[in-house]
Amino acid sequence: MREPAPPRPERCTFCGAGLPPGHRHLADTAERALVCACTACVLLFQQPGAADGRYRVVPDRCLSDPGREPGEDTWRTLGIPVSTAFLMLGTAPARPVLCYPGPAGATESDLEPETWRTAFAGNRLAALLEPDVEALLLRRTHGRVRCFLVPVDRAYELVGRMRLHWRGFDGGSEAHAELDAFFAAVQERAVALPEETTP
């Protein structure tokens, strides 16, 4: 029996250089897609005016805001029918998008801007969210909504994990274990926003 071919190494979309695991990504705002990039090309596209702003470097920050997480009212306002979702702000066109990871990938649903403003009024993570390159990651368990600001490629990493491990109607035990492990890693990496100070 023939051995399966080893996976082809990933290469930089722009210069073709081989890429290591954990390489950086850029958001192609015209195509609404993520592209892989080497360190040199990332530095190039960080320069003001590069490619007329079409490509934006995905940052690597991960933030939380303990004690100020969204409540059940936010969940109802958004109308999320599942336990896990992420939200992004796009610029081409300018609109908030709600995504549900599942066995078929990320199911997208447009949000009315007024719904976004109502759901996240006063939310500090939403106020910091960078369009195209970051996402608000939400998970509702046991009546609690956990919320993190993450790089958008991390949100799509979760989508890939769900596609790989989903079984049956509700995902099955393997998908749920992946969800738990993913959110535990995000929680460990997340930097908590400082407490607000009063003069």
Please give a handful of descriptors for the protein shown.
199 residues, alpha+beta, 3-stranded antiparallel β-sheet, globular, DUF5947
Quick rundown:
It is built from six helices and ten strands; from the N terminus they run E-E-H-E-E-H-E-E-E-H-H-E-E-H-H-E. The protein has 199 residues and is α+β, with helices and mostly antiparallel strands.
Low-confidence stretches: none
Overall shape: it is globular
What is the mean predicted local confidence, pLDDT? 87
| Helix/strand structural class | alpha+beta
Which strand-content bin applies to the residues? 25-35%
Numbering strands along the chain, what is their spatial order in the largest sheet? 7-6-5-8-9-4-10
Helix content: 25-40%
Biggest sheet details: 7 strands, mixed
What does the radius of gyration come to? Answer: 18 Å
Order of helices and strands: EEHEEHEEEHHEEHHE
Pfam families: DUF5947
Structure report:
- This protein is α+β, with helices and mostly antiparallel strands and 199 residues long.
- It contains 6 helices and 10 strands, in the order E-E-H-E-E-H-E-E-E-H-H-E-E-H-H-E.
- Helix 2 (72-78) runs antiparallel to helix 3 (113-119) and helix 5 (152-165) runs antiparallel to helix 6 (172-189).
- The N and C termini lie far apart (73 Å).
- The model has no long low-confidence stretch (mean pLDDT 87).
